[in-house]
Amino acid sequence: MRPAPSIVEVVAAIIIGSDGSFLLARRPEGKPYAGYWEFPGGKVNPEESLLRALKRELLEELGIHVKHAYPWITRTFTYPHARVRLHFYRVVEWHGEPHPHEDQELSWQFADNVSVEPLLPANAPVLRALALPPVYGITNAAEWGPQIAAARIGHALQKGLRLVQLREKGMRSKALDAFAREVTALAHHYGARILVNSGTGNESLCQELDMDGIHFTSADLMNLSKRPDVEWCAASCHNAEELFRAEQLEMDFAVLAPVLPTLSHPDSPVLGWRKLARIIHGSAIPVYALGGLQSEDLAIAWEHGAHGIALMRRIEQVRGTGQKA
């Protein structure tokens, strides 16, 4: 039996411009996959931390000094020449103007409209993950009533919310149908995606109302044998085991909760930011932090490896475009 190939540790940078675009580099002649586009980065040296490797590579390749970078997702991919573990960071602040220092070409791109090709095969799920906004809004008609809940969702969508979960487990079918139709229409009017919670509806409801996908409860997640045939799939997780299952089923993203005490369960055990970071570390899929959060917690969530935050009672705090909370 041939031994499994050793894994090459690699850092990769999502260098994000002020307009939400990110930088891609075209591999020069003489390297494997010459002519393919990729995220800037490179191999981690022995005894070198990931962040130090990222800063060194970007200085060598692009001539920029990284000032602020957030850990993001980790993807493993097997190429014919090597098996690599890609540690992605989102670089949001740097000094200097990126210039090609190693004969590569550079191009600023948007996740929903990448115009360069071919891309390295490992990057397809990364581009999909980049299409996810930083804030995930959750409906709360059970507490506010359908009319006020729809108004609050509509207001948040006006201010830039671009991802919504319909979560109304106790709503009766007739009222649910009317509310779901209204919120779905609102979401699509503003160009947002909407997922139905599996405790609220199922795949047939998703298809009937032309929703964009399903968000599975942690119990439903653990009972799934395969990912359903819908465009977007997400799951609620509360521990490392559930997050690992979400990765196995190739969910597009997960929500990890509760991070902080909530109004509904103020005395329940919480994860806290450090434990959330430990669970998320090395995750192959983006993770939203949920529980007792407000818009000001977005930067803290990024620092601890989360893709963003999920808001329910404080959904009206959403502000700006799809790139900011």
Automatic annotation (TrEMBL):
Nudix hydrolase domain location: 5-134
Recorded catalytic activity of this chain's protein: 8-oxo-GTP + H2O = 8-oxo-GMP + diphosphate + H(+); 8-oxo-dGTP + H2O = 8-oxo-dGMP + diphosphate + H(+)
EC number assigned by the record: 3.6.1.55
First-level EC class: hydrolase
Keywords: DNA damage, DNA repair, DNA replication, Hydrolase, Magnesium, Metal-binding, Mutator protein
CDD domains cross-referenced by the UniProt entry: NUDIX_MutT_NudA_like (cd03425), TMP_TenI (cd00564)
GO molecular function per UniProt: 8-oxo-7,8-dihydrodeoxyguanosine triphosphate pyrophosphatase activity; 8-oxo-7,8-dihydroguanosine triphosphate pyrophosphatase activity; 8-oxo-dGDP phosphatase activity; 8-oxo-GDP phosphatase activity; metal ion binding
GO biological process, one term: DNA repair
Requisite cofactors: Mg(2+)
Residue ranges of coiled coil: none
NCBIfam families noted in UniProt: PRK08999.1
Record-given protein name: 8-oxo-dGTP diphosphatase
Source organism (scientific name): Nitrosospira multiformis (strain ATCC 25196 / NCIMB 11849 / C 71)
